[in-house]
Amino acid sequence: MQTKIADVVRRIRPSVIRDMALRAEKLDHVISLGIGEPDFHTAPEISRLALQDAESGYTHYTPSKGYGDLVEALCEYLNRYFGHGVSPEQIAVTSGGMGALTAYFRVVLNPGDEVLVPEPYFPSYRPQIEWAGGQLVPVPTSFEQGFVLTPEAVERAITTRTKVLMINSPHNPTGLITPPEILDDLARLAEEKDLLVLSDEVYDRLVFDGRRHDSIFHRPGMRERTTVLGSFSKSFAMTGWRLGYAFGPEWLIKEMVKVLAHYTSCPPSVSQRAGLAALRQDASLVDAMAAEFQTRRDLLYEKLCHFPGVKIHKPTGAFYAFPNLEAITDNTEQFALDLLYEEQVVVIPGGAFGASGQKCVRMAFTVDCDRLTEALDRFSRFITKQMERKKLRRTGA
Ligand SMILES: Cc1ncc(COP(=O)(O)O)c(C=O)c1O
What we know:
Aspartate Aminotransferase, domain 2, 7-stranded mixed β-sheet, binds pyridoxal-5'-phosphate, PyrdxlP-dep_Trfase_small, Aminotransferase_I/II_large
């Protein structure tokens, strides 16, 4: 009977991130730097207001693109906070950033159309693209070049089937931000080659060292061809509410709403009320969370810099570090499993994000500083052991 499963689903490999989590569940004293979600709970005031709204009757289907007052508030937020200069007609609220990805690819992809995706990349991009009939074409980046997507590499990957260029900044899994001059170049290239642009900016509020989030949407000519993907998940610690959004050209958003109406009808009503409460709360709450991630980033970076065999770029956003371990191991998958079983620390092998990430592991600094310190002590002990084992193997002892 299993042969009846659709090829496009059978081809999808189970999530490495979920697999590590399942293994970890069976062990004691685990510290997980695995799954990418804030460890903070949603602010109690947000939950309280959402539940209050539920009690007063916000429990019905909503417009497919979200409640009018939420779309208005989101519009005001995007314009005030990021200067995006959008209108409510250019916005659709979705069931998580994931829901926006689903609708976007369904709207723009014909069978065989190609989407250029900087590698390493968020693993869900591939199934999302393939389920809509498209092809993910990875554009490799390298640790040596700071995982920066070069316009030359993008240009080399363009074919007659290329329809969309994806960007993800701040970036999962590297925690790096695309430099402004690269966004300039990519925008010029997208215009020259007549590509649509999908910019995944779900980590837009989590940027460090006084930076302001920057978007390709602001480059000349981009408003007509760029759709930006956003989410309440990371910025407002609301992963479980499943609330995201997209904004872009009105003609494209209109088509996305058509798709959303038939996929999910609408995003969950109570989650939308929570989203509205989140946008109305004091901005300092989000800033405090971002500041805490920066403190953890500092702690992690300082320590990893001094570990033998570890190379690392300083993360500038999101809550991930992506250290290179090629001096320690040539198999980061095995490394991650051994680390879990010997020291009960979860990291994600970089190959889960595509071949360009193979020599690295992803560490999410989504535990408090004490637990992070403990995890790094265990990590340090483990790599010392690994280096010794490697030396013994080399000398044949
Ligand atoms: C780069 C990126 N895009 C999109 C998402 C989807 O987020 P959500 O559906 O929770 O909004 C994630 C979640 O980890 C992500 O890392």
